[in-house]
Specification:
single chain; 185 residues; mainly alpha; 7 helices; elongated
């Protein structure tokens, strides 16, 4: 079998080209690739409807086109459909908020009124809160040494305005040493 003449892509003449087009060379075939996409009015209406509830990937799959083609040829319909959906849902939310629904009122004010329930904690005069990492100093201490240091650390924290460490020396677990009580008890 003799090989037919092939083009530079290794394909027979006219393969992968649009039919009905005559190339400048006079050979059949002409331009390589798919024909240009032309959107129909029905497709435009479907994209606008679908964009209210579907992702762009789902819309492209439903129309059997690529996402790039969808974005290139239906940009206006995608934006308009999303705008219509946001306006419809926003209208219902606003109606509920105006009717006194607490969650709707809070959500609306946080998103549209720029209300915030965020609390920022700062130290004295707006400076950062000072912190002390005691772990390197306390890691090599025995339980007895830690118990002896607890009142000192509690007093330092109280002087700095921090809350108490919680518990007392008596509550610190000394009862596991044969029933002996903590010093000073």
């Amino acid at each position: 079998m003799a090989d037919k003449k092939r083009d530079r892509r290794g394909c027979p003449p006219g393969a992968g080209t649009r039919t009905g087009i005559v190339a400048p060379t006079g050979l059949p075939g002409g331009q390589i690739g798919n024909p240009p996409f032309i959107a129909t009015q029905d497709q435009r209406e479907r994209v606008q409807l679908y964009s209210k509830v579907m992702s762009q990937e789902m819309i492209a799959e439903a129309l059997d086109i690529s996402i790039d083609t969808l974005r290139r040829h239906f940009r206006h319909e995608l934006q308009e459909g999303k705008r219509e959906a946001v306006a419809a849902v926003g209208g219902k939310l606003l109606a509920k908020a105006l009717a006194g629904h607490p969650a709707s009122m809070i959500f609306y004010l946080k998103t549209q009124g720029k209300w915030s329930s965020r609390i920022e904690l700062t130290g004295k005069d707006g400076w950062p809160i000072p912190t002390i990492d005691l772990a390197p100093f306390l890691k090599d201490m025995s339980d007895e040494q830690l118990l002896a240091a607890l009142p000192i650390v509690s007093a330092l924290l109280a002087a700095a305005g921090s809350p108490d460490l919680g518990g007392s020396i008596e509550d610190s677990g000394e009862s596991d040493q044969g029933g002996a009580s903590a010093p000073g008890a």
